[in-house]
Each structure stands twice: as C-alpha cells, then as structure tokens.
Amino acid sequence: MDILPKDMMLIFIKIIIISILCDHYIIQCTDTEYHLNEHNPLLGRHPENLEQNVYKVKKDPLEINGDTFFGVTKLLQKLENELETQAKEENDQIIDGVNKLVNKMMQRNVQPETTDKVHNSTIENTTSHPLLLNEKTVRNMKNPERSEFNRNKTVMKIPKNDSIVHLGTSMERESSGEGNPSTVGGEVDTTTVVNQELFHTNTISENSDNISNPLKQGSKSIHVQPTRNKITPSYTHQRDAQKRGIEWFSRRIPRIFSDLQIKSQDNSSLCNLQYILYQTSLKNLNVWAVKMYDASDTTPRGFMVGNSYQLGHFDECIAIREPSHGISGKHCLIETRLKFNKSHHPTDQNQDEAIWNIFDPVDISEHRLPKDSLHLSLCIPSGCTFRDLEQSLRIVVERQHTDVKEWISFRVTPDMCFAENERKISQQLIITCVVFVGFALIVIAVTVFHLLTYEPDIKSLPFFRSALLSFSMVHNFQKLFSGSNEELRFLHGLKFISMCLIIMGHRLFYYFQSPVLDMQNMLQKFLEYDYILVHFNIVDTFLTITGFLTFHTLYTKIKKHGITLIPNAILYRWLRLVPVYAAIIAVLAIIIPNFGNGPVFKLKISREALRCQQNWWTNILFISNYVNTHQSCLIQSWYLSVDFQMFLIGLLLLYVISKNENLGIRLLYACFGMSVVIPFIVTLKGRHWGILKLTTRVLADPIASKYFNEVYSKTHNRASCYFLGMMTSHLCFKLKEKKFQFTTKQLFLNSIVIYILMEGSSFYQWLFYIPDRPYYPLENALYAAINRVMWSAGICAIITEFYITGFGFISPILNHPMYVPLSRLSYCALLIHTQVQLLTIAATRVPEYLTYKKMFWEVGGDIFVTYTTATILYLFVEAPIGNLVDLFLKKERTRTKS
C-alpha cells in the first residue's frame, strides 16, 4: 500500500530527531581520544587471535555493550513499533535508509577499515555494525535486557606503565593522573581495541603468566575498568603515529609493491611502454602478463626463522615472451634493508623477548643471525633496467609515511637482474673457449694416434715423439695409477681423507651463502654443537705433509747437486702448479659467468669472477695472501701461496743443512720457535681471536673477514706446521739409520697422546663460541700460538709411526693402492671442489631445508663430481704439461752435464 503523506512526514521527523541526537553525541566525543587502527574490529572481519595485541586509548564513553546507544536504540524501537503495521518490503526500505544514515554518522567519528575475524569476539555478525539495523538488532531493541551486549561483559584492567609499540615512535603511559583535566576522580575512562593483524607485540598472550587473558571463550564484549593515566607531553605526535597504523613490515611491503609504477629515469620509451602494456594486459588477464605477476614474490615468508630469500619462479619469468611488442621476462632480486632502532621501540616489560632484539645488524652480535635484510623477487619487462626498478622503488618509498621511509630501503644492482636476451659473448670468452677446445682436440688426437701406434715406454723415444705422446691420455692414465714409494704410500691415504674433510668443511661454508629455508635452525645445528666447526685445522695436515716431503725428497738431491738445484726446483714446481691454477681461474673468471642461470646465479658468481679478473696475477705469482687479500681469487688460494712461499724457505734451509747439518738443524729449530712466537705477538698486539670464528658474517664471505686477511692467511702465522713436517722428516732419517722400531705398547700409548693432542686442541675452540664470554687477550694469544702446533704434532706422530714401524691394523687401510691415484688428484681436487659447490648454490631456484643427512649426501656428491672433474683436468692439463716440463728440464740437465 502507498505511504500516506502524513506517515512520510512522521518518518522524516523521526529521522531528523535521530540525526540531532547522534550529532549531539558525536560533538560530545570530539574531546575523546578514541582511536581505532586502520583495521577496526567493530566494522569488519574480526581479528583471529583476540589475545594477541591490545591497543590502549585515552578514553571513550562508548562502551562496546550497547548501553551507550540506549537513547538511539529507544527511538529506533519506537520507530519499529509504529511501522509494524506496514508491509514488510516497506519496512525493509525504511530500515535500509536508517542503516545508511547511521553508517554515515559513524563515519564522521571514525573511519573504519577491514579487519580480521575474531574467535569468540565482541560482535558475532561481521558484516554489520552494532548500530545498523538487521534482524538481530531489531530483536535486541525489543528486549534490551536480553541483548548480547548487556548479557556478556568481560572486565579487563589496563596495566599501568604500559606502552604502545609502533614503527618510529612510542607512547608511554605513566601511572599518575594528578593535574590531568580529563581525569574524573583521579581516573580516566579507557577502551581497549584488540587487533591481531597489526603489529605482533604479544601484549596479551594466551599462555602468559603475567597478564591474565581478558577474552575467554564465550565472551561477547569488552568492558574496560577506568585506570589512572598521565599523558606524556609528546602524546600528540605519538597519537598521529598511532593513527598511521602499527603494522608488521611483511604486510606493508606488498602494498608498497602494489603501488609500484616502473618508469624509466632516462626517458626510455621502451621501459615505459612495456610496463604500461604489462599493466593493461594484467588487467585483461592475458597469459603472459599473469605469468609475469605469478613469477614474482614480494611477500616475506619465514623471515623470523632466517628465510631471507623470496626467489619467486625464475624459470617461469625468463621464459615469458610477447612477440608482438618484443617483451620478455626479466627476473630481478631486490635487496630490502630494514633499519630498526630498538631505542625508539620500547616493549612491554612482561614480554619474554622484545621483538626488536632479533633485528640486530650484522656487526652488532656475532652470535645472532642477522635479520636486517631480505631479498624479494620481481619479474619485470626486459626493457626496464635495474636502475629503472631501483629509482621507481625509491619514489614509491618517498610517498609513504615518514615512519616507513625511516625503516625500509631498496637496492638493486646489475648482478641482481637476469634476462636471456642480455647475454653477451665477449672476446675473452671466445679466446678462452678456443684455447680449451684446441687443447682438448690435441689430447684426443694424440690419444687416437697413440692407440694406433702403441708405444709402451715413451721415455725411450726421440725427444719430439716423446713430447707429442706426453698428451696421450693412455700414457697419462697409466701414470696416474702407477706404483709409488712403499714407505710413503700411507701418505696417499692420509691426503685423500684430509681432502674429503676439507670438501665437507667448504660445503658448510657455502651453505651459509645460499638461500636456506630455516637459517636460524641451521645455525643452531651446525654452529652451536657441530664437530666440523672445531676441526678447521685439517688444512694444516697438508702443510705438515708438504714439509715432510720437501725434506724427504730434496735433501739428498741438494746435498748431491748443491745450490744449482734450487733454481731448477723452484722453476719446476712453479711450472707444475701454474697451468692447472690458470685454467681454473680462467674458468671462474670468464666461462662460468656466461654458462648458467638462476635467481642468485649472477649475485653469487659475479663477485668471485670479478675478483679473479682483477687479481689473477697475484695468484699465479703466489702472493695472494699478502697482496689484495680482501679481493683474493679463489678462497683456497691463500694455501697455495703459503705452500709455495714455505717451499722457498725450505729449500734455503735444506741447502744450509746439506752444507752443515748441525748448524742447519739448529737454524730449523730456531725458525720453528719463531713461527710459534710470531702468532702469539700478532694476536696479542692486534687483540685478535685465537681462531677464525665462523660467525654469520665470516661464513657469508670469508675472504672479506678481517681476521682472515690479517692473521689466518699469512705465511708467518702458519709456518710452524711446515717446519714441524721438515723436523719430522729429519727425525725419521735418524731413526731409520738406528733401525729403531716402536713396540705395540708404545704405539698404543702414542695413539692416546696423539688423540689428546689433536682433539684437545680442537675442542677447546668451543669456548670461543660461548656468547657473552669475556675476551681474554693472553688466552687467545697462547691458543693462536700452540693450536696448530698441537694438531701438526699429532700428524707428525702418525707419520713417524707409520714410516718407522707401521700402525697395526690401520696400516693396511691407509696403505691401500686405491689411495694412490686419488692422492695424485688432490691438487686438482683442491682447486675444483669450491667451484663445484659454488655452482650448486648459484643454480638454486628455491630455498633449501638443510639437515645432516642432506649435508652428507651432498658432500658425497661433491667428492664424486670433484674427483671426476679432477681426473679430466689431470688428463687434459696437469699430466701433459707436467710431462713436457720433465722432458725439457731433463734435456737441459743433460746439456749442462755435457
């Protein structure tokens, strides 16, 4: 039926009355500091965990129980009674009109936004406000005393001296309320609004013993008892920051990227056009644009446990092609730096741990995983450069609130972006590939020739034919498996086992440079109680063995040929080491960067390649441990430099010993004593640690470590191991002359002493990893002086017992013939294994979850691939050039004699 004019007039009069009353109420509330964050639990979805975050406000007479709206409710109830006689659809129209009016009036007071769902929360109907009319509100108006707002009240007191945590500012409430004009009877009305999706202060925890849970299951409302508070002078500024929103950064960052508009900073029409086409195509849901969006990942996940790489889908991105406009995908990593200041972010003292305490930058706490940076991935059109992306991100950040600009920044470098169409074939790459392919063809051709004209002994052939057959893989393969000195065969087994342990240790290094899903858990597993952690003295085994072999093989020759042998020995060693060394450097500097891809491939490979391109000459001159040490090419290059430098010193000592044995041996012992004192002085004076502490910063880039450059890689700090090896060789000569033999009892006791020496010196390192343990200069200096000596002394004892008597049931194990070829491949394996490991982490597509089982499985793969590749390198490079060097030096010696 039609609405009569009189009825219509009555309706408008009552609506005007409602408006006046609500306006009057709003005016009364203007002095109230009623604040809801950008997620309002009254006007949207409810937060999921009501106990998680509690935000305190100054006061608000509006209690969330329906009593405050009693006047409005009474009028609405009367209006409903008068309209009951009208048709249902007319009733619905009027109710909708009143709903819109009330909603509009409420927006004049607060501007709500969407919130999350609350379990057992104050408001059950998440699609409407308590003021808005619906079937339930109509029922409550009829029976106010049965309303859920009045039926269920939960009283919660706000603790004194509490605070609000937000980005950039803080609000502290003091306990005193004297002199505050807003206090009534020394108390201030407050209302607590709970929101879980904002920041994660955990002010009220479900399992907290200090603060009771104010929201039990079944509660429908929150009523806060008034407390006494005093507002700080900076409240206005803090209130503004509060209105801006208290929010965890992983929710803010995706919105920053949603506002991103990539524009070329050099007025490149290609980038601007391609990005506009991308946005338009994405709105139209074109497949290529959706793939580009789908391949990106700008939401941090697992950040609290150390997952700092969000790699997206690299292969999906670079495979994108849009031929009509020449668009292809470019995958970019974006380094996001977080600049949290703990002093500006106080937290509730009842918390177990302040959230800001885990955001220390890298250089603040060496025992903590740095969480001040992460890498996000974005797939963009290939026409846009890394500069376009970086500048566009800076512009977006500048548009954010001040607090956001203070704690976040973005960085993009050329090594962080990859596109298939950006690959360039350089002249260096062509020359290097031609040299390698040519060398390989020569080896293959000579091998075929050797098979057709088989010569069992090429040494008896003419010089030219012997030189040609030096490239034969048949001859070199036989040489690899040929027999060795029976007295020293045990050294082959010792070298191979030590090499495997070194490969395992370097695999641990590279784990910490790769994207890991749970880095925090990995740190606890591998660094707190890890056996490998305290056994990085294994590399000293090689220095000890090298010192032993230098004395053993060259002493009699120098004694026979005199000083003339020294230049030839130096040249021979340099020519044997450099070819393989140069080949590995060329592969890393030129070839690897152009063959391979992945989201972190350029980021990981380019740094190492650049170091080799700039400092290759320090490597082949074996001075990389003293020149440009912070940019050394190959992490293991320091060892080769130390080994070669000690070889020069060892030759001079051998010459003195060959001329005057007593004087020479005394000089050798004096050098050993100096090599023990020097690390003590260096450590004490420089206040260094006694070991290379494998902190997160060192593991991320050991070459850039101060201790690595100033102490760890220096020859004068490692010479003691080499001198001990030479002293052991001299001792073995003397014992052999006296035909001394160890008894079984002596071997058993020596084994116990060896174990105590080696393991005791290693396990003591754990003391240096105890967090907050004081630094004792004398302790560190003493340990730096004797640590390597004790380990090398154990190795020397093993060598002596094996050389003189044997070591019981262990002798057949280390003397097995299978170790002979594996030991001869040790030099190639030492150079290759780090490249194998570097390539595996550079090709990573997704963060890995690491366990001990997986580590041993991957170490097994490293060993297999390393020695397989080392065999190829030996047959194609090391053995052929070594044969040529032997032939030329032999011919030179023959000419000299004649």
Biggest sheet descriptor: 5 strands, antiparallel
How many structural domains does the protein architecture include?
3
Helix share, percent: 40-55%
Q: Round the mean pLDDT to the nearest integer and report it.
A: 74
Count of alpha and pi helical runs: 31
Low-confidence stretches: 24-70, 109-246, 342-365
Secondary-structure-based class equals: mainly alpha
CA-atom Rg in angstroms: 38 Å
N→C terminal distance: 134 Å
Instruction: Characterize the overall form.
Output: elongated
Report the strand count: 12
Give the percentage of residues in beta strands: 5-15%
Describe, in plain words, how this protein is organized in 3D.
There is one protein chain. The chain is mostly helical and 898 residues long. The protein folds into three domains: 5-232, no CATH class; 250-422, no CATH class; 520-828, no CATH class. 54% of the residues lie in helices and 5% in strands. Strands 8, 9, 10, 11 and 12 form a five-stranded antiparallel sheet that branches. A three-stranded antiparallel sheet has the order 3-4-7. Strand 3 and strand 4 (170-174) form a beta hairpin. The chain crosses the membrane at residues 429-451, 463-481, 493-512, 532-554, 574-592, 638-657, 664-684, 747-769, 789-813, 864-889. Keywords: Membrane, Transmembrane, Transmembrane helix. Residues 268-419 form the Nose resistant-to-fluoxetine protein N-terminal domain. GO terms for molecular function: acyltransferase activity, transferring groups other than amino-acyl groups. This is Nose resistant to fluoxetine protein 6.
